[in-house]
Specification:
Helices cover 70% and strands 0% of the residues. It has a domain of 60 residues: Up-down Bundle (Methane Monooxygenase Hydroxylase, Chain G, domain 1), CATH 1.20.58. The protein is mainly alpha-helical and 96 residues long. The chain is elongated, with a radius of gyration of 24 Å. The chain is built from 4 helices and no strands.
Length: 96
């Protein structure tokens, strides 16, 4: 092996070993998965609808919020999606 390849291999191994020592990446026995009380589709539709609102695509945002409202499981998510739906309706009406 040449000196360049040896040095490159040593550097790469040190970098990879250093990544495993980060304190935030410790997935020991204390780490446990937690579930959220929201349906995955309703959370995704809320985020996607807000993304569409930011782009000015209000009709598509409204439709996305309606899809999220259909899959929402708990009252908090239903209220949040209904509020976003009302706000989007107001935006649509103000732009006409």
């Amino acid at each position: 092996m040449t000196m360049k390849t040896t040095l490159a291999a040593l550097t790469a191994s040190l970098l990879l070993a250093g990544c495993s020592m980060l304190p935030g990446l410790d997935f020991g026995p204390d780490h446990e998965a937690r579930s959220v009380p929201y349906h995955e589709n309703s959370v995704n539709n809320l985020a996607l609808g807000r993304y569409y609102q930011a782009q000015g695509r209000f009709v598509l945002a409204r439709e996305t919020f309606l899809h999220g409202l259909a899959t929402a499981r708990n009252d908090e998510m239903k209220e949040r999606l209904a509020a976003e739906l009302e706000a989007t309706d107001r935006l649509i009406l103000s732009n006409r």
